[in-house]
Design brief:
This protein is an alpha/beta fold. The protein contains 9 helices and 11 strands. It has 3 domains: about 90 residues, Winged helix-like DNA-binding domain superfamily/Winged helix DNA-binding domain (Arc Repressor Mutant, subunit A, Orthogonal Bundle); about 90 residues, 3-Layer(aba) Sandwich (D-Maltodextrin-Binding Protein, domain 2), CATH 3.40.190.10; about 100 residues, 3-Layer(aba) Sandwich (D-Maltodextrin-Binding Protein, domain 2), CATH 3.40.190.10. One of its GO terms (molecular function) is DNA binding.
Amino acid sequence: MADTLKRLEYFACLAGIEHYGKAAEKLGIAQSALSQQIKALEHEVGVRLFEPAGRGIRLSLAGKNYYDSVRDLLDRHLSAIEKARKTASGETGRVTISHVGTALFDPLFLTILKSFRALYPAVGISLLELEMDEQLILLEQRKIDLAFIRGPQPVLPDGTISKHFSRHRLYVALSPSHPMAGEKSLSLHQLKNDAFVGYQDLNNYGITSVLIRLAQAAGFNPHIEWRVSAVSNALGMVNAWNAVSVVPGCIVSYNIGNIVYIPLEDENAWTDMLMVGMDGPLSSLQRTLQDYFLTYKSIT
C-alpha cells in the first residue's frame, strides 16, 4: 500500500510537470527510478498513462481521467493525515459541556467559549443545561467532558476535581408591585415574611443553600414555597405570585421579564461557579479543553 501511494505521488508530480528530468529533480530521485515507478504503475493500472509530446510527455486520455481521481485521492489522504494529527493533539473532535442555566449569563464563561471556538474551529461543542446532580452523575460516567455547577462544593464523585471559576454578587428578584421594589439595596431580614422561590439543587447545594445560610445568619428560616429547575422559571414565579427569588448578579444586565433586581447587603451574599472535570486519564481533546478554560481564566 505504501509503495502504491508513493507511485501515485510520483505520477501526480510527473503529470503536473510533464517532463521526467524536471519531475525527478523535484522529487529528489533519479530519473531512471521515476521511470521505473511509472512503468510499474502503468502495469498495475493496465493502460498507458503518458504519451510522447515533443521533448517531453503529456497525459494520455486515460491518464487524464486517472489523474483526476488520483489528485482527489491524494488530497483526501493529506486531509486524513491532518485530521488524525489534530485529533491526537486535541484540535478536533467534539466536546460536551454541561452547566447550570445561569452559566449562560456569566460573561467569563461566554467569553472563554467564544475564544475556544475561534481557536479550535474543528472542535464541535455541545452544551447541556442540567441540574447539579445530573451533571455529576454524567461526569462520573464520562458522558460529559466538563461541568459547571454552583457552589458550595458538593461531595464530588471519585475521579473528578473542581476549580473555582467565577463569583457573582447575589440579588433579590422582585415584582415591580412588591413593597420593597423601590429600595436601592436590601438585607434578607427585610424579606423574612416573604415566600421564596428556590431551586432544585442537590441536597440544598447551590444558590438555595446560600439563601438558607444567609437567612439563618439574619435570624430566620426562609419560607421556600416553590422549587424550580431554572432561573427563568423562578422569575416567572416572581411575576405570577409576587414571590422573591435570589439570583446571581450576572443575569441582572439581561433584564429578563418585568423584574426588579436589588442587591443584597448581607455579608457573604455571593455565589461561586465551580468548574468540575475528570482527574485523568484524559484524551488530548479533554486536556485541551480543561487547560484552556483554566489558563484563560488565570490571565483575565
